[in-house]
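All the exercises in this workshop are built on plain-text protein records. Sequence and backbone structure share a record, each on its own labelled line. The structure tokens are whole numbers drawn from a learned vocabulary of backbone shapes. The record below serves as our worked example for the rest of this section.
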Amino acid sequence: MASTFAVSSGSAWALGLPSLGDGQNLTTPQERKLGDRIIKELYRDPDYLDDAVLTEYVSQILASLMKASEERGELSDELKERYAWQILLGRDKQVNAFALPGGYFGVYLGLISIVSTRDELASVMAHELSHVTQRHIARLIEQQGKMTPLMIGSMILGALAASRSPDAAAALMMGGQAAVVQNQLNFSRDMEREADRIGFGLMKPAGYAQQGFVGMFDKLQQANRINDNGSWPYLRSHPLTTQRIADMHARIGKEDGAAEPPATLDHVMMVARARVLTKPGVEVLRQYIHETRDVGFADKSVNRRVSALYAAALSGVQLQDYAQARDAVGKLKPLVQGNAPAQRQTLLLAAEVEMAAGKPEEALRELSADAQKITADVGRPELLARTQVMLQLKRGAEMTGVLQTWVATHPQDSGAWLALSRVWNQQEQPLRAIRAEAEAQMGHYDYAAARDRFKAGQDLARKGGGDFYDASIIDTRLREVDSLLKEQASDRSFN
């Protein structure tokens, strides 16, 4: 994955912005379809990371911004219903985020690693959300006139590849399309200003400090001055200008001028998690551990100690040094007492340590004092962690009901479908397990792979495996995926 576009809604005229067109040449269903096809390729990227903890953290920020956008009239009912509103994480260290057609958002761990506060991360997400609600991709296609959505899709994939492999980018963006990319960059400057201003307006209603916008701009400006060595591609896809920076400072000056609030404990934990999960190398992981042993560590701020201990514990897992990981968790627990979000993240981390160490009983104890209190309103990180634990304990059947409830309301959650497949396999229900595997492929828009699994389920059902109800579901879903494949075949491929 890599960087590219962002989007926003119809009240731009009220801000005195230039008219960018209304994007009517590309309908919202077409834009969603375009996004689905692009995202299918990104799910295949080896850097794609389904980390339930970080994905939930970023998704909650996006959800609060979406609510504010809806209340302000920026997010229409049509867009809210038709678009995906999904977060994809990339393991790469590059400082980057992007929005895609159809309400998909990409965030690299490198970006999470450098934001000082939740407000700074929210400022990036507010900017990207505004790109989507303003339908900037649709406007781009309208502006370019002769460009087809599929050509735009190829360009987007090329732009996403460019930050890591110029050769890969060239393969996706051939010939005259390179000139069109430059035209798009020129056109996007108005879009960037529009996304800044609308995104800025979402911050306070969503519960975030507007100073986060200025803090993030200052970080980007400092990086730009030092050197853009390729690790800050956000500076290229979202070029900073003196005008944009001055505009943000002027806007914050009209407010109360308060300093940006300090980071919360759960935020510094997420920053630490992002840094470790970028796989920085053995020496860096050891440094994270050694920091907690330094003379004077006890004199550092609570935020600094919480961050360091979280990183040390997760580094211990990566290095298979479980004694060190447990020691760090033990020191972390008293520091977060009384802080519910931080306590929750500490328990999830403790369970992660124990599972990695092959101690599912201890992991279950960390997740819940009473293993029977498993309810449908549990968060996704707990849901997947509990399932992993119960499978290890040969008690996966206890998770069936809560997983079925979850996928019924989150049908695109591939990770939950795969967990349910493992649960059904453990219960010796192969037909249901195959169906869940197929649904997991559907969640990543890999219709060919999904068809293979549905077909395998159909073959098994004909041999007497499973019951009539399960077989009927598979038959229906197979017809649906065949229809989707025919529709795909009628369009020209990106590749």
Observations:
- Strands lie at 48-49, 86-90, 97-100, 104-108.
